[in-house]
């Protein structure tokens, strides 16, 4: 199957190419970039030198010939491509935020008009696998909402309040130089940002509500001086207290068939480079608080790996195809 990656010079584009090298039937035939048109892939992704001979190109949307497309461009840009890809019947996963929310909530959250809106399944396979299977276009979830939703989903129906506290690696801000990813602003430090108003809260609310929950959700992200990874601590306030044993059993059962969710001590170093989400849970004594912690690699389960997982489901491949490289530890 021929694959085109639109926006391949960025971090998620690079990880799509890296992961697809091990896919049994996916050949990346086009990797687009405006700035790097004509340059070898390894100029932007030096880890791929010797492994991928492709050069960046900059075709018009009408000239893209592929069986499957990944949109790895910023939000508000993806919507310029989505309509035509859908019309042409080219299966697509959009890594941006453009199709994750309802039109009304998207426009309110992002403060822009959506020029090409249509509904698309939310590409979190552990929750929406059957909708994804039937879809031609899937909206890949945000990195924070992936770790947060997976951490809280098994208890969502029993919760009245969920507070998500996440620590993210710097690659979440993309490859373009900015104040967020400048070394001297990040190294040897830790800071909270967008304390109450991060745009990903809208996705968390949508997904938790979709699980039949009445819980009020809150979210604060923190910027951690590491390249990859998101550790999310979910403080889940229940209507009735549960023991750690009961909570653990609930999670084990909820995820028993999910290869990419592992119940073990969540540590960024044990998921790095992989599509795994590691989760552990503990109930507080004499309280209704349960603490669920998840760890993902923001560029893999939080973006490119999950996008390939969705492609595999949409196209009938084994869900793990291209996603079985073990995490890099330590
Ligand atoms: N980084 C992360 O952890 C995650 C990112 N995402 C989302 O995935 C998408 C890609 O993210 P990431 O790879 O980090 O971003 P980068 O900033 O690293 O890369 C963005 C890519 O989009 C291209 N691009 C930018 N503007 C335009 C434009 N106007 N027209 C065409 N191409 C454009 C750039 O190419 P060039 O400038 O060379 O043309 C580049 O290849 C974004 O929507 C992001 O929000 C989702 C989950 C996690
Ligand atoms: C460190 C950092 O800046 N992280 C980004 C993560 C955004 C992201 O990648 O999510 P989308 O897919 O919705 O764009 C942020 O907090 O906005």
UniProtKB/TrEMBL annotation:
Keywords: Amino-acid biosynthesis, Arginine biosynthesis, Cytoplasm, NADP, Oxidoreductase. GO terms for cellular component: cytoplasm. Residues 2-135 form the Semialdehyde dehydrogenase NAD-binding domain. GO terms for biological process: L-arginine biosynthetic process. It holds the Pfam family Semialdhyde_dhC_1. Pathway: Amino-acid biosynthesis; L-arginine biosynthesis; N(2)-acetyl-L-ornithine from L-glutamate: step 3/4. It catalyses: N-acetyl-L-glutamate 5-semialdehyde + phosphate + NADP(+) = N-acetyl-L-glutamyl 5-phosphate + NADPH + H(+). It is found in: Cytoplasm. NCBIfam families: argC. This is N-acetyl-gamma-glutamyl-phosphate reductase. It comes from Methanolacinia petrolearia (strain DSM 11571 / OCM 486 / SEBR 4847) (Methanoplanus petrolearius).
């Amino acid at each position: 199957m021929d694959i085109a990656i639109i926006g391949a010079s960025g971090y998620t584009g690079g990880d799509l190419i890296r992961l697809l090298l091990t896919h049994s039937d996916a050949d990346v035939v086009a990797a687009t970039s405006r700035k790097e048109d004509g340059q070898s892939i390894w100029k932007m992704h030096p880890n791929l030198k010797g492994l991928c001979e492709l050069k960046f190109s900059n075709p018009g949307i009408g000239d893209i010939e592929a069986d499957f497309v990944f949109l790895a461009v910023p939000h508000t840009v993806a919507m310029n491509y989505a309509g035509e890809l859908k019309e042409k019947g080219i299966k697509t996963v959009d890594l941006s935020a453009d199709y994750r929310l309802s039109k009304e909530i998207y426009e309110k959250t992002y403060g822009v008009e959506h020029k090409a809106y249509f509904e698309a399944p939310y590409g979190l396979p552990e929750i929406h696998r059957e909708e994804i299977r039937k879809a031609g276009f899937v909206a890949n979830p945000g990195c924070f909402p992936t770790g947060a939703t997976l951490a809280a989903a098994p208890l969502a129906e029993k919760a009245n309040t969920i507070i998500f506290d996440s620590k993210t690696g710097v690659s979440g801000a993309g490859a373009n130089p900015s104040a967020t990813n400048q070394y001297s602003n990040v190294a040897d430090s830790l800071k909270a940002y967008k304390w109450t108003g991060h745009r990903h809260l809208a996705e968390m609310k949508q997904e938790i509500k979709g699980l039949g929950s009445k819980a009020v959700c809150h979210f604060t992200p923190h910027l951690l001086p590491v390249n990859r990874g998101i550790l999310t601590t979910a403080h889940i306030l229940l209507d009735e207290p549960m023991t750690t044993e009961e909570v653990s059993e609930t999670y084990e059962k909820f995820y028993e068939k999910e290869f990419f969710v592992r119940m073990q001590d969540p540590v960024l170093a044990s998921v790095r480079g992989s599509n795994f989400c590691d989760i552990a849970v503990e109930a507080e004594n004499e309280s209704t608080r349960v603490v669920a912690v998840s760890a993902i690699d923001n560029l893999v389960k939080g973006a490119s790996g999950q996008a390939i997982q969705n492609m595999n489901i949409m196209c009938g491949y084994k869900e793990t195809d291209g996603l079985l490289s073990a995490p890099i530890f330590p």
